[in-house]
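Person: Please comment on this record:
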Amino acid sequence: MNGPGINDFTLRIATVNGTGSASANGLLMKAIFRMGVPVVGKNIFPSNIQGLPTWYEIRVTGDGYAGRDGETHFVIAMNPETYADDLAELAPDGVLLYDSTWPRPQLLSRPDVTVLGAPLSAMCNEAFKAARSRILMKNMAYVGAAAALLNLDLGVIEQLVIEMFAGKEKLIPLNMQAVALGHDYAKQNFKCPLDFRVSPLDKTKGKVMIDGNTAAGIGAVFGGATFGAWYPITPSTSLMDAFQKYCEELRVDPETGQNNFCILQAEDELAAAGLTIGAAWAGARGFTPTSGPGVSLMSEFIGFAYYTEVPLVICDIQRVGPSTGMPTRTQQCDIQLCAYASHGDTRHLVLFPAHPGECFEFSAKALDLAERFQTPVFFLSDIDIGMNDWMVDELTWPEDYVPDRGKVLDAEQLEEIDAFYRYLDVDGDTIPYRTLPGTHPKGAYFLRGSGHTKLGRYTEKGPEYKEVIDRLYEKWKRAAAFMPEPVVKKADRPARYGMIAIGSSDAAVTEARDRLEAAGVPVDYMRVRGFPFSDDVAAFVEAHEEVFVVEQNRDAQLMNLLITETSAAKEKLVPVLHYSGEPLNYRFVFEAVETALKVRKIA
């Protein structure tokens, strides 16, 4: 693990929520990306509207890693209240740039780092008249200073500004003036560029920067969804925003102007689930996005959909709990909640996307699985994936894709059969046929959440109830063969140890594994992508002396699920748990595994 260098460092920008810094921060990240250098953006923001500290972290990684480094090498400190913390965050030999309009040297003393002061506010106050402009342009001024220090291409920055203010061209010269103020001051007063900086590469062709919620919304449109219901909740609202945006582009009849989609904002999450179930029962493909508290409220309807076998897709963008918790921080704390949501004996299908590319793919796959198996399916993402910018391959869609609507009888098929029984396993594959309302009189049935027989009739007889519940369990087990296969990365030589992770943990685990191997410790890695687990998961554990299960929660929920749902030996599983609310970094994983292995060696 080397220190910072060319195309290998982390920049952290400390500002105040509500000051308009998000655009400037995104501009810096996009400029690096357009210079052909892989980059990762992480937004750490408060849950209030404005006034509290917020940070934006940009990792420049020429090797193309997708996770956090765990060290900060350059801080742009624009919030006086966090100066001390921002200074403490810096790695040795790091650089801190602050607004010296109000000098605070006593707070910025540390012998092993370089502190640079630029009077950004003073320069903007002198150059711009409007009060709001002075605040906003201060952000663009630090963009200019960072561009000089990090060797960013001003031509690229100008092009991004032009694109940013398309339709508001009068703002372009003002913003570029502010960029020039910061850039010129840095050039005249500091050593530019720094020893660690950006150097153009050619590693971003065929890539896009996108967040997971946007990708999932696009995937739902391409996957055939025409209905969405939700109650606004951080951090899932932007998923529905994206779905609506692309429906308005792609699901409007060009001749009549009629919308071929329906989106409803419900009064709460429980109603959103009910609306989505009703739409699916009527034959529409749809979903509801939410987070952990919403899943809790939906619990009764989730059980209803499971027992009545109505397709239901829930996109859970996880955040820190319990209760309200820290709603703008990330965790993987709903794993068990989603696997067993609702009272009674229930087991659900769960998909674990690891990045926006898989969000695009899996949001459509969730719709297919829900209709094929007539059951709730959870698309389990988190804030890190959902709301942060990731570099992924350009999104592509198979031209031959046909939605899997499952076993739905049409009018002609109903006309030919003697009788229709909603919950009868005719084919012996655990999945009954379903019908849509109004198709044919023979297809009518009474939908009830209370006890029913395989013929769809009311019952309170134990054996009849048990027959239906047992089939539901067998159907769930059968779904394992249809889940995305685990991704396995083998060490270059035989490995005694393995690692297992899901979702956004993948980025940090992948890099930690590479660095462990470089340090002489071969480790195999399996990324699980769906639940129920395939037999490959237990086989992976069996093939290793110990397997480190890396996850972002306190209670080892993934490990507990492995113990409960597979034949994996409990004594082989070692938890590596990160639950501070900040995205996982590779150093945490590397050090946890390295420390554990040193203890084993001593023992």
Observations:
- The longest strand covers residues 90-99.
- The chain has a mean pLDDT of 95.
- The radius of gyration is 27 Å.
- Residues 122 and 380 are 47 Å apart (CA to CA).
